[in-house]
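Q: Please design a sequence for this.
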């Protein structure tokens, strides 16, 4: 599976996903740290990736879009990188199951 991790999340999350065999990049890997939501959305469409983010704007866009990328909405509060990766890891298998079922918006809470 291919993932694009948005700017509100650390690049370490993209590395964590890659270590588990997924094609993952952080927007900073593409020089897109300051990219608009539209630019990130369009990039995800172009590379056929799932957007992983903390931004409710992507959720709203995914809700009303008839096409476009799958969005994973990370709903943990501000935390350390280590705690975030542990939190994400606890939910990762459920996330993969949701994506395998074809869900287009997955909320991780």
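A: Design:
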């Amino acid at each position: 599976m291919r993932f694009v991790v948005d700017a509100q999340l650390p690049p370490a999350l993209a590395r964590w996903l890659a270590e588990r065999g997924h094609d993952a990049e952080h927007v900073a890997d593409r020089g897109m740290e300051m990219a608009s939501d539209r630019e990130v959305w369009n990039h995800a469409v172009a590379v056929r990736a799932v957007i992983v983010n903390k931004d409710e704007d992507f959720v709203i866009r995914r809700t009303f879009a008839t096409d476009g990328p799958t969005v994973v909405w990370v709903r943990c509060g501000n935390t350390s990188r280590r705690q975030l990766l542990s939190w994400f890891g606890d939910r990762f298998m459920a996330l993969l199951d949701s994506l395998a079922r074809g869900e287009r918006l997955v909320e991780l809470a």
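Q: Thanks. Anything notable?
A: The chain has a mean pLDDT of 97. The two ends are 21 Å apart (CA to CA).
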